[in-house]
Write a structure and sequence with these properties.
heterotrimer, A alpha+beta (about 350), B mainly alpha (about 400), C mainly alpha (about 250), B: about 400 residues, 14 helices, about 75% helix, C: mainly alpha, two-stranded antiparallel sheet, 11 helices
Chain lengths: ~350, ~400, ~250
């Protein structure tokens, strides 16, 4: 039975190899990400696949592909899963490999849920470096931003995951230890002011340095992103972040089908899985198309300002150059691209 | 090749036979391992939400044990150093035991890291060549390399020695001495690298201290040899293997000095935290005194400090140290004290209060405890087998039969 | 042996000793090994520390400062491949200009969203003629209660033109179209106005990419009662939700 399982899988994946390596001396140029690192593709890759098949069979990874009675859909899903499992780090993928994995993910969603999602792999634009400013005189603690963020980014509803935290400070100090981010009353409360924190997309991000597998990195436009499929879930980045910017999927995240935002980005709001890290991406699926992040759009007070730091005509530049701004924990040398200011 | 196969089969035979006590011991360990496997299965199914860890305290019992055991593994060096370099023959019997302990501790370390992963199936991403190891930037990447390297060294040297003793040959010094010497530095390296894993994070002021590395070494060189003394005591009692008192006294000396140095460092840490209480003292304040109703760590840390003081004082006086009953008790207390100190006293308070000052406490769940027990049982199991095979070979009762 | 040890070329001495003294006393062997390994170990450790300090985040954090990035890469003629147009599509835009009549940015057309406009659908008289001190008199906009500054400071006629109901007015009696209402506000709130023009006050709608479309004053502030009101947060913090609804 055991060997039969293995055989099944190899049979399923075999035709794909021949497709990919068609014709010229098996260059395997368009093979997926796993090859990009292994360099000598076909034989070693399939050898490892076969080997790992045995190892993984026990974990139920191949459940659907093993069953003799499994239908075509199940088989296709298993094959897609298989290719997904062996793909490489997104950061190192070629454009074709990115397209291929996006297609697989969309296909897997269609097979699993019957609907259609759009996963973008849009890259960083030239001459763009995103920056964010937060007006602490304006924020009233309405939490509209949090609401919008959760809906936009498909965060787990079961654990109520939120990227943004709004801290309520009593006037007269700015000590986070004395602040309350758990308030339960009408806002704004008299004698208090509010301040939001989230991932600050540091120019010198400590989370990126510590990741043992390069699953998180800073994109050219300054957004710190995570490859959810490459993350091994060690949570070292979470320990390294001084801003509480990162969230972990302690169990399988769940978003009701009718609440799922289907406009997605590979590095942004596409559904995550159990045991991986996630965080604010400045709504990469929105910002890379010129739109404001959901929190900026939702804020009724205009306390949130987002834009291109490299554009001298942008509002974010005007804020930095004309208001008295500060950043949190600047002494740590993380260089956040998230400024606070007052009227 | 034939010899190696015969050695493995002889070793297997040796490991599977023994006294009733040995069989009971191994059965208990097997049961614990099964319980651990079941708990881990629960964790795989439900995700890490089956543990007590949260976004606030994102490392818990697993990483605590990992950190502690790296120290135990590194401490094997304290026995290797005098035997091979200072030519203090008293230790030669202890060395193989020490290296066996290092191997078992390393296996436990790797197991603890693996069970802590959110995606253990994706661990191949860390393998250089087919994955993308973030070396040299990530200290965790360093740790993966040095731990596996150390495991390799500590497997190969004893194997080489035993392989020769098994055939009744004398091992060639120029072959194994370089390995031994490398392992000495390597041992310091693994524990320093593990300390740097934490000390390199300015986000956690409680860890971000230059003293962390040296303190790791001092506490490891107390806890590791303390465990070796205890195991030697057990081996002496249950196996027909003579270990002279002198050997145990020498190791006790190592434990004593390391424990004293550790206390000095603890003192300077306490002074720094509490003489001028700054924002960065919050973790220490929480740990030692609690904040409001939140004081889960208070009993642990005071227990640890109490045991540590008691054991170190007892060890300091010749009269007590020479009394083996007191020595064993002190070693046990010291071992427990340092185990608490590495987990409840270091890893967990590093996360409390969180980056924005909020205090969320951490309590391990039964799943976590089960997995932890299972891994400790695994370590003890591996160690028992190694000792069971190594001792007869060393004593010459297990020999290659042509 | 001592002689060799004292020589300056230490590595060389090891080389000699290995060959000339092959099969020598193993005790001395290990001494040499010990020293060499100690030497190698210390060098290795220093190398390790050097590697760490140079690799991790570089010696200087300044290179990573966004301000340095701005200084190095700022570009006033960026050719954007994206635009905020798709996200403000459907909003009729009105240009905000500076004193030289250059367009600065856009605001949404206001009059399209006024409930009853033009005013002469109902009012045939100029506003000045309708004002009465009679408290029992009929009120056209009974639901509007002026809650803006003090009664002494503001009346209807401070902002609305007394001659033509379709217009607002400035202090210099200049009539202002409803789509330019920000000019009325700016007379008192010049600080806010400057911040708004710059981008620190108010809200940009649609996208961050050009063209910029900002809400104008009255899109967020009711001119008759401009302060924001207290209300319940639209969602609670994670911990609070779990406290209130434990699963």
């Amino acid at each position: 039975m055991f060997f039969k399982k293995k055989k099944n899988v190899n049979e399923e994946t075999a035709p794909q190899h021949t497709e990919k390596c068609g014709g010229d001396s098996c260059g395997c140029q368009q093979a997926d990400g796993f090859d990009q690192v292994i360099k000598k593709p076909l034989d070693r890759r399939s050898a490892l696949k076969g080997l790992t098949a045995g190892l993984l069979a026990g974990t139920g990874f191949l459940n659907s592909s093993c069953s003799v009675t499994a239908g075509d859909t199940d088989k296709e899903l298993a094959s897609l899963k298989w290719d997904e499992y062996f793909k490489g780090n997104y950061q190192l993928m070629t454009a074709e490999e990115k397209k291929a994995t996006v297609a697989r993910l969309e296909k897997m969603y269609a097979l699993n849920n019957g609907g259609k999602i759009n996963i973008s792999d849009k890259g960083a634009a030239k001459d763009v470096l995103y920056g964010y400013a937060f007006n602490i005189s304006k924020c009233q603690g309405y939490m509209d931003c949090v609401n919008a963020c959760v809906e936009e980014n498909n965060q787990d509803r079961d654990s109520q995951m939120q990227y943004i935290r709004i801290h309520e400070f009593k006037k007269g100090q700015m000590n986070f230890e004395m602040a309350d981010d758990n308030f339960y009353h009408e806002v704004p409360a008299a004698g208090h002011f509010y301040m939001g924190t989230q991932c600050f997309h540091c120019e010198n991000p400590p989370c990126v340095d510590v990741c043992p597998v390069k699953a998180t990195w800073k994109e050219k436009d300054g957004i710190v992103v995570i490859d959810y499929d490459w993350c091994i879930g060690c949570r070292y980045c979470q320990a390294a972040c001084p801003y509480d910017g990162r969230r972990f999927n302690w169990s399988t995240p769940h978003v009701p089908e009718n609440e799922l935002n289907k406009d997605q980005h590979y590095l942004g709001n596409r559904p995550r899985k159990k045991g991986v890290m996630e965080k604010c991406t400045f709504c990469i699926q929105r910002s890379r198309s010129g739109e404001n992040p959901a929190c900026v759009e939702a804020c009724p007070t205009g306390a949130r300002i987002f834009g291109n730091l490299l554009d001298p005509n942008s509002t974010i530049r005007w804020v930095i150059e004309n208001k008295k701004v500060f950043r949190l924990k600047e002494d740590l040398g993380t260089e956040p691209k998230f400024w606070y200011f007052m009227d | 090749m034939k010899v190696a196969l015969s050695m493995i089969s002889d070793g297997f035979k040796e490991a599977t036979k023994g006294t009733t006590a040995y069989h009971i011991w191994m059965s208990v360990l097997t049961l614990l391992m099964l319980f651990g496997a079941y708990s881990y299965y629960q964790q795989i199914v439900h995700g890490l939400s089956a543990t007590g860890m949260t976004d606030r305290v994102s490392w818990g019992l697993y990483i605590s044990n990992f950190t502690f055991l790296v120290g135990v593994a590194a401490a094997a060096v304290m026995l290797v150093l005098p035997t091979y370099i200072l030519k203090d023959v008293d230790f030669s019997q202890a060395v193989l035991i020490g290296e066996g302990l290092a191997v078992s501790a390393l296996i436990m370390c790797l197991a603890f890291v693996t069970v802590d992963m959110g995606g253990p199936a994706r661990l191949w991403h860390i393998i250089p060549g087919i994955g993308s190891l973030n070396w040299p930037n990530s200290m965790l990447a360093w740790d993966v390399l040095v731990l596996n390297g150390y495991l390799f060294i500590n497997l190969s040297i004893p194997f080489y020695l035993l392989y020769h003793h098994y055939q009744g040959k004398k091992p060639n010094k120029s072959v194994y001495l370089p390995g031994v010497l490398i392992s000495v530095f390597w041992a310091v390296g693994i524990h320093l690298v593990t300390a740097f894993l934490y000390a390199g994070l300015p986000a956690r002021p409680f860890w971000n201290s230059a003293l962390l590395g040296p303190r790791f070494l001092a506490s490891a060189f107390a806890a590791g040899p303390a465990l070796i003394i205890l195991t030697l005591a057990v081996i002496r009692k249950f196996m027909n293997y003579t270990i002279p008192d002198k050997t145990i006294d020498k190791i006790a000396m190592v434990v004593t000095v390391a424990a004293q140095v550790n206390l000095i460092m603890l003192g300077s840490e306490l002074f720094k935290e509490f003489y001028s209480i700054t924002h960065h003292s919050s973790s220490a304040l929480y740990m030692f005194f609690g904040v409001g109703s939140k004081n889960a760590l208070v009993p642990w840390i005071w227990t640890s400090i109490g045991l540590n003081l008691l054991a170190t004082i007892a060890l300091t006086f010749n009269r007590f140290r020479k009394n083996h009953m007191i020595l064993y008790a002190s070693c046990a207390l010291l071992f427990i004290a340092i185990w608490i100190d590495k987990g409840m006293g270091l890893i967990i308070p590093g996360f409390i209060p969180g980056p924005w000052g909020d205090i969320v406490e951490y309590f391990p769940t039964w799943v976590e405890v089960g997995v932890t027990l299972g891994i400790w049982a695994l370590g003890a199991f591996v160690f028992s087998i190694l000792v069971k095979i190594a001792v007869p070979i060393e004593m010459g009762t297990l020999r290659y039969k042509k | 042996m001592d002689k060799i040890k004292n020589s300056s070329s230490y590595r060389h001495s090891l080389f000699i000793s290995r060959h000339s003294r092959a099969g020598g006393n193993p005790l001395e062997w290990s001494t040499v090994f010990g020293q060499v390994t100690a030497y190698a170990g210390i060098t290795g450790f220093i190398g390790f520390v050097l590697l760490l300090t140079t690799s991790c985040s570089g010696p200087s954090h300044n290179d990573h400062s966004p301000l340095v990035q701005i200084e190095k890469h700022s570009n006033s003629n960026i050719e954007y491949s994206v635009s905020s147009d798709p996200f403000t599509y459907g909003i009729e835009k009105v240009a905000v200009t500076n004193s030289e009549k250059d367009t600065l940015f856009f605001i949404p057309n206001r009059v399209n969203h006024l409930v009853s406009f033009p005013c002469n659908n109902c009012h045939t008289q100029a506003l000045g003629n309708m004002v009465s001190d009679d408290p029992s008199g009929k009120k056209a906009h009974w639901n509007i209660k002026l809650n803006h500054a003090t009664d002494e400071a503001l009346t209807c006629l401070t902002c609305h033109s007394s001659n033509d109901v379709e217009y607002l007015r400035l202090n210099n009696e200049k009539e202002i179209h409803f789509n330019q209402s920000q000019k009325v506000c700016a007379q008192c709130h010049s600080t806010q106005s400057n911040d708004w023009v710059g981008g620190a006050h108010g809200k940009i709608i649609g996208g961050w990419a050009p063209p910029r479309v900002s809400n104008t004053c009255v899109n967020c502030h009711d001119p008759h009662s401009p302060a924001f009101e207290t209300r319940w947060p639209s969602r609670l913090n994670t911990v609070k939700i779990q406290e209130l609804d434990p699963k």
